[in-house]
Amino acid sequence: MQTQTPGTARWFDISFFALALGLAFFAASLTPSLIPRAWPLQGVLAGLVMALGYMIGRFFVTLWKSLQFPEPRGRLRIGVQAVLVVMALALVIFCLSMFTAWQNSVRSRVDMELLEGGTVLGIVAIGIAVFFILFLIGAAFQKAFDLVRFWLYRVMSPRAANLLGIVAVLLAIIVASRDWVVPAIFDFLDQSYETAQDLFETAPPAPTDPQIAGGPGSLASWEAMGQPGRNFVTSAASAEDIGTFTGREAERPIRVYVGRSQADDPHERAKIALEEMIRLGAFDRRYLMIASPTGTGWLDPGAHDTFEYMHNGDVATVAVQYSFLQSPLALIFETDTGLEQATATTEEFYRYWRTLPEDSRPELYMHGISLGAWSSMYSFNVFQMLDVPVAGALWAGPPFPSYLWRHTVAARNAGTPYVLPEIDDNAVVRFSSQFRTPEQEGDDWGRIRINFLQYASDPIVFFEPNSSFREPEWMREPPAPDVSPYLKFVPVVTQFQLALDMALSKALPGGFGHNYLARDYIDAWVAVSPPEDWSPERTEALKAICNLGKDTGCAVQ
Q1: How far is the C-alpha of 400 from the C-alpha of 466, rounded, in Å?
Q2: Taking a C-beta distance cutoff of 8 angstroms, is the pair 497, 419 a contact?
Q3: Helices within 463-552 (DSSP H only)
């Protein structure tokens, strides 16, 4: 903030150095990142980072003056300012001319329709509008600061008045956020809860089959499951359809889902799930899966249908809901609830599973996608499972904060890429993508098989919180096939590009970004849980009956 003497504060005190930096940020925002950006969003991003660049520039100008360093004056000052602004404008023009080509370098790699020209004026118009709005907001804060500090000049020294003025304005902002902004956010979240609770009244009739969770005699409340849970338990393939594919007599898979609304305590929900699984005879099946849903409670059919088809339906799967929110909101506001629920569920089932005879209990697997992958990993108790390990785990799209994922990537063999590393001799952990299957790393597995399925174009996985001033490791390597070769690190700007990428992570076609496909789950499951009498031809046959959409699974035609 500026430190003029009383009465000299102006609303539009332009710093040309700061303006040049803001324009440079505007230009840098036009470079490609992981997810293609439509021109309106690009305009918003450009205006936002331009305002941020301007703010940073003003800070350094103020700091320079406060330290009383020498400044150019007269014609020299005007000349320096003009050169900086002209260079920044030239950079903006160049980057605008490259925008379409840069975006198409991403689109061509993720099977999206290529852009044509004609979007430059729209980007500029939106960017300037966003910058101007933010500039006015900043000017309002500056004006408030000036009014406070000028009044304080009457009773204290300018240095003390400036400090106290900043504190007063910041406190006002914090109070306003606490009383207005945060309540507005929670009102929005409350609407999500209300919508979830309305499902009690709008739920369709419960199933009449007592062998389906939520049906007669079930301990899992049909109404409390919500739409994601009801879809999950009723959409399992029939024994007839699975048998048609395998050519053998098959079973209908067991699926149990306990909704967030059924009980307040995560341990209570886990106990209900266990009792329901016991009621349905789940522990008599050969394969048992503990699945962690996403924030909304959704479970990916591409992961579960494929596992059930390849194992002839001899599978029981359990999932317990912990939130009603979209995963990005749940990640911010309900992180602990997901981790607590996954831990409670895994502990409850693992403890019971260990009591069963070793030669007759089912093979136990863990699975999760997105926030479900993080919570499932969190519940993976290494110290318990070193003694009696689960058979394996498949975690898809693990979010960047996942400690186990980050620790594993950090332990990769030298020379292997960050986005698709290799760990030791590949006996315990393997990474796969749409371009590499786990089987390509050999057949020598240990007692437990863990696979991370991740796409290099998935910003949920590869967002880096420290990328404001430090280049992410994966950017220092040759780009993966689904990443633009023009992607470059720019301090501060890259952080905002990746943050927008996370919000747009589902906007790509299936098989890219955060949209994981059945075909890639199949390759992973074949390696993690090898089916009996399987062959590459069976793998291709299963892929042929599995749809490519993220909300559809497999169906025999």
Answers
A1: 12
A2: no
A3: 493-503, 518-528, 536-545
Residue 20: CB atoms within 10 A of its CB come to 24
For the segment 450-472, what is each residue's pLDDT rounded down to a tens digit? Answer: 999 999 999 999 999 988 899 99
How many of the other CB atoms lie within 10 Å of CB of 264?
Answer: 8
The answer to whether position 161 is within a domain reads: no
Helices (H), 177-300: 182-202, 222-234, 239-246, 266-279
Please check whether residue 165 lies inside any domain of the structure: no
Q: Is 301 helix (H, G, I), strand (E, B) or coil?
A: helix
pLDDT, tens digit, 9 for 90 and up, residues 363-379: 999 999 999 999 999 99
Count structural domains, the chain: 2
Would you tell me how many other CB atoms lie within 10 Å of the CB of residue 342? 31
Alpha carbon 151 to chain centroid, angstroms: 47
The whole-angstrom separation of Cα 153 and Cα 159 is 9
- Domain, as residue range, for 406: 203-458+505-545
Residues near 418 by beta carbon (within 8 Å), at least 6 away in sequence: 409, 412, 473, 474, 477
Q: Closest Cα partner for 43 from 132, 148, 164, 137?
A: 132
Task: Decide if 391 is inside a domain.
Answer: yes
Specify whether 294 is located in the same domain as 362. yes
Look at the alpha carbons of 544, 550, 553, 557 in this order and tell me if their dihedral is positive or negative.
Answer: negative
My answer on whether 242 and 313 are in the same domain is yes
Exposure of 36 in the CB half-sphere (CA atoms within 13 A) = 24
187 found inside a domain: no
Buried-exposed string 162-199: b where 16+ CB fall within 10 A, e elsewhere = beebeeebeeeeeeeeeeeeeeeeeeeeeebeeebeeb
**With bands split at pLDDT 50, 70 and 90, how would you rate the model's confidence at 310?**
very high
**Strand order through the sheet with 392-396:** 254-258, 315-320, 287-292, 363-369, 392-396, 449-453, 429-432
Residues contacting residue 513 through CB under 8 Å, at least 6 positions apart:
34, 35, 110, 455, 457, 458, 459, 504, 505, 506, 507
Q: Are residues 139 and 245 in the same domain?
A: no
